[in-house]
Design a protein that fits this description.
Strand content: over 45%
Helix content: under 10%
Largest sheet: 8 strands, antiparallel
Radius of gyration: 21 Å
Number of strands: 25
Distance between the termini: 10 Å
């Protein structure tokens, strides 16, 4: 394996949320590494107002094809015949007359006819429960004008809210609106909104990528008509739901009480073994740099690694200085 280092980086974080600085590209090029080798990842951080702020040093690995190193733990292509129910890897818990079916190689969830109270709900019971995962799926609404929501959730347990039956009773999810914004929510009273993502869903649908690792939650949405953007739409921190769980997909109709459907395709769930997430540390308040280091073992399949500097400001415009950042042979 090789080594890399950065002696000085100054980062101004634009908003009071997690900031991330990549040492290389989002995919691929970074420090050459060899599977099984031990490396030391290190860095020193300072917040320029001498405020105590949480920081973290992560490492992401990539393959020879310059794609993130992934370990697929569950996938679904809905390959059955038209009209078939979803396969045995899914447990349905529909409300009222809601239903599921396979249609033209996609998984269709059709709501009932009562406003907000008859969602179609599928729980990936055949998936291995996992806490740290990333799900990718295409969600296509039957209408881009009528009120309806599609939900893509992680860390769920197969139960649902008593007051919002379309919402899981545990975990985090992206709620895709019929034609407007997307919402990152967590289970709980009122299903609190963690973030609103400005987005317009076309008739071709919206891709959703949702990541949960430890207390870091990240979401990315993009129209099926364009390439996946490099940047996440939102990254935040929340510690409400950290236990292992599975994926849930839900379709919900609106106030007009008309039955509508969402279709899903190309679902894949990865564990986050390709990431090595650091333990948060707090910057010093006396003007000195706070040093942090740890040893890591390169996983199988990795040929390169990117060091990612993570900062947690409390307000917009905070400046962080990093020195002696690197990934060195152990």
């Amino acid at each position: 394996g090789g080594s890399s280092g950065t002696w000085l980086s100054e980062v101004t974080v634009a908003a009071a949320r997690q900031g991330r600085l990549f040492s290389g590209g989002r995919y691929g090029w970074g420090t050459p590494v060899t599977a099984g080798d031990t490396h030391t990842v290190l860095g020193a951080a300072w917040q320029d107002a001498n405020a105590a702020r949480s920081c973290r040093i992560d490492v992401e690995y990539a393959t020879a094809g310059e794609e993130p190193l992934a370990n697929v733990v569950f996938s679904e292509a809905w390959a059955g015949g038209n009209g078939d129910n979803w396969d045995a890897d899914w447990t349905s818990n529909h409300a009222g007359a809601a239903d599921d079916a396979i249609q033209n190689g996609r998984g269709r969830l059709t709501t009932g006819t009562s406003a907000y109270t008859t969602p179609a709900r599928e729980y990936a019971s055949g998936m291995t429960a996992i806490a740290d995962c990333e799900v990718l799926v295409l969600a296509i609404p039957s209408s881009t004008s009528a009120e309806m929501r599609g939900i893509v959730a992680v860390r769920t347990v197969g139960t649902y809210s008593g007051t919002d039956p379309g919402h899981p009773a545990a975990g985090y999810w992206v709620e895709v609106a019929e034609g407007g914004n997307c919402y990152v929510r967590e289970a709980g009273v009122g299903s609190p909104v963690l973030a609103t993502i400005t987005h317009t869903t076309p008739v071709q649908g919206t891709y959703v990528r949702l990541r949960a690792h430890g207390t870091t939650i990240a979401a990315k949405v993009w129209a099926a008509t364009v390439q996946e953007p490099a940047k996440w739409s939102w990254i935040g921190e929340d510690s409400t739901w950290t236990a292992a769980g599975k994926v849930t997909l839900t379709a919900q109709n609106g106030a007009d009480a008309v039955s509508r459907y969402w279709e899903f395709d190309d679902l894949q769930v990865d564990d986050l073994g390709y990431c090595n997430f650091g333990t948060p540390f707090t910057t010093n308040t006396d003007g000195s740099l706070k040093e942090n280091s740890r040893n890591i073992v390169v996983p199988a399949g990795a040929v390169s690694a990117n060091v990612i500097l993570v900062m947690f400001p409390t307000g917009a415009g905070e400046v962080f200085v990093w020195e002696r950042v690197g990934l060195m042979p152990g």
